[in-house]
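Journal club prep — side note

Before the paper discussion, L.F. wants everyone to see what a predicted structure for a comparable chain looks like in C-alpha cell form. Sequence:
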Amino acid sequence: MRTLFVCLALAASAAIAAPQPAAKIRPYVYQNAKGDKVDAELGTFFVPENRTNPESAQIELAFVRFKSTAKKPGNPIVYLAGGPGGSAVGAAKGSRFPLFMALREVGDVIAFDQRGTGMSQRDIPCSDPVLVPLDTPTREAVIKAYLQKSRECIEYHRDWQRVDLRGYNTNESADDLEALRRVLGAKKIDLWAISYGTHLALTTIRRHPSSIGHAVLAGTEGPDHTLKLPSNVDKHLEAIGELLKRDPEWSARVPDFVALVRQVHEKLEKEPAVAEVVDPTTKQKVKVPVNKFVMQAFTAANMGTTTIRYYPAIYYAASQGDYTAMGDFWLSFARQPIGNAMSIMMDCASGATAARRERIAREAKTSLVSNFADQVFPDICEAWGNPDLGDAFRAPVQSDVPTLFISGTLDGRTPISNAEEYAAGFSRAHHLILDGAVHSDPLFLSTPKIAQMMMALFRDEPLPARTTVVVDPPKWAPIKK
C-alpha cells in the first residue's frame, strides 16, 4: 500500500510540473434561468484528451468565474456537478444561483464544466432511442438493447468523430482540475461538489493533495460507490415507511409501506398486468405490460430523489389494480436514449472492487429491488471496452484537507454510510446530517445552516465534528381518488 501512495504522489508531482495550459479569459455576462444577469468571466483552456497517449488530441475546457466580493478573497471555490454528465455552468442558472452568489463573500466561485459536459469539449451524446421491446420488460432485454445501441454510439464517436473514449475517466478529470488551478494562478483551490462531483473531488484530493485547500462534499459517492448496494435501497424504503406512519391519512391507508411494496411485487410476479396509457408521440392509447421488474426498476431508479413523494400513491394505486403510472414509466424508459458517452465511460472506468460486486450479488437475492439500482451497469461496460481504473483507484482516501460532508437521511442514492466510510480517512472531517433531506437540491438549500457551515469551513472557522439539522421532508402526493 505504501508503494501505491508513493506512485500516486510521484504522478501528482509530475502533473504539477506540467507546462502551464494556454488559457483565454474574457468578460462575460452570465444570465440565470430567471433572467437575472451578473458580470462574470468566461475562461477556456486546452488539455490532452488522453494523457496516457503522447499523440493525444487537445480538447477545450470551459469555466465561468464569479469574482469575489471579499476584500481579501480566499481560495477559488470550484463547483463540481454530479451525474456524471452534469454541467456546472448550467447548475448555476437554477435554484442554486443564490448560493453561488453568496459564496463570493469568501472567494471567487468557479462553475467548471468537466470534459464532455456543458460548454466544455467534447460533446459526445448517444441520442438515439434505445428501443427496448415494449412486450419484454426484463433486465435481460434492457441490457441487450443497451449493448446494441452502445456499439452504434461507440462506432460513431470513435471511428467517425475520432474521439479517444478512454480519456473519459475520473483520473483525467482530476488532472483537469489541477490544470484549472494553474490557469487560475492559485496556490490552492477549494472544492464544492455534489453526488458524482464528490467522486471526482475525492480522486482529486488523492492525486493532487497539496493543491486542495478545503472541500464540501454533498451526497458522497466514494471511489468504490459507483455500483449501489441493494441493502441501501431497502433501508430507504423502510425510512419512507416510518415517515408514512406519522401521516394521519397515509398511516390509515398504508400501515406498513414495506409490506405493501412486497405485496405488489409478489402479485405482479404471479400475474403481470397491462396498463393502457397515451403514447406522447402518437397521442394514441397503447397497452403496456407491467410486471415485477417494471415496479422494481422504477423504484430503484428514483430512490433518494424528490420522486419518492409519489411512491406511496403509486404503490397504493397498484394494490388497487391501477398501474397507469408504471405503464407511463415503462413506455418512457424503453424509448429513452443512452444519454452521454462521457457518463458511461466515467462509470465503467470507476467500476467496483470484487468485494463490493460480491456483496451486491449476495444482497440482490433478498432485496426488494434486486440489483436494479445499478440499472445497466456493469453489464454494458463490456461494449465500452471495460476501461476499469483498477482497485488502486478505489482504495480508501487519507487526507488532512478540512472537509465538510453533507448527507440526507432520505438520500437513498448516496446514504449517510457513504460519507461515514470516507470521512474516517479525513483527520479534519465534519459531517452535517440533514434529517428529512433527499438527494440533490435539499443537500444545499433545505436550511440556511448549510450555507453558514460551508462559509465557516472555507474561512477556517471552527466546526463541530457532527451536526444534525431537521428539515422538511418531501410532501407526499395525494391518494388517488
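L.F.'s comment for the group: The first helix runs from residue 2 to 16. Keep this in mind when we get to the figures.
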